[in-house]
Amino acid sequence: MKYFVYLARCSDKSLYTGSCNNINNRKKKHNKGEGSEYTYKRLPIKIVYFEELNSLIEARRREKQIKGWTRIKKENLITYGHPTKF
User: Fold this and answer.
1) Starting at the edge strand that comes first in sequence, how are the strands of the sheet with 46-53 ordered?
2) Residue 83 has pLDDT above 90, yes or no
3) How much is the pLDDT for 74?
4) Domain range spanning residue 38?
5) Looking at residues 61-74, what average pLDDT do you find?
6) DSSP class of residue 45?
């Protein structure tokens, strides 16, 4: 089974980092207000970046890593696919 870590841009332009095993269903749940309390207050969301991983452990580890980053680093990941500027 594949797992995903993703960045979602909320309606207020904030970023939400999460992990799941079905990215399309997760996006739908977020936009129905069932995803998380954070995104519920900032609908709609748009998935702006995702990575596919081989296990839930890897996805959660990567999610935690990205959550610890600055906004600039996250924006660079979205724009360039890498957390540092080119």
Assistant:
1) 15-20, 3-9, 46-53
2) no
3) 97
4) 3-80
5) 97
6) -
C-alpha to C-alpha distances, 43 to 17, 31, 48, 85, nearest whole angstrom: 15, 6, 14, 29
Please compute the mean of the pLDDT values over residues 27-52 and round it to a whole number. 96
> From CA 49, how far away is CA 74, in angstroms rounded?
10
Give φ, ψ of 18 to 5 degrees. Answer: -150, 175
The more confident residue out of 50 and 83 is 50
Residues 6+ apart with CB under 8 A from 76: 82, 83, 84, 85
| Structural domain includes residue 71 | yes
* Backbone angle region of 33, left / alpha / beta, with phi > 0 → left and psi within -120 to 50 → alpha: left
pLDDT value for 85: 59
CB 23 within 8 A of CB 45: no
Q: What's the total number of domains in the chain?
A: 1
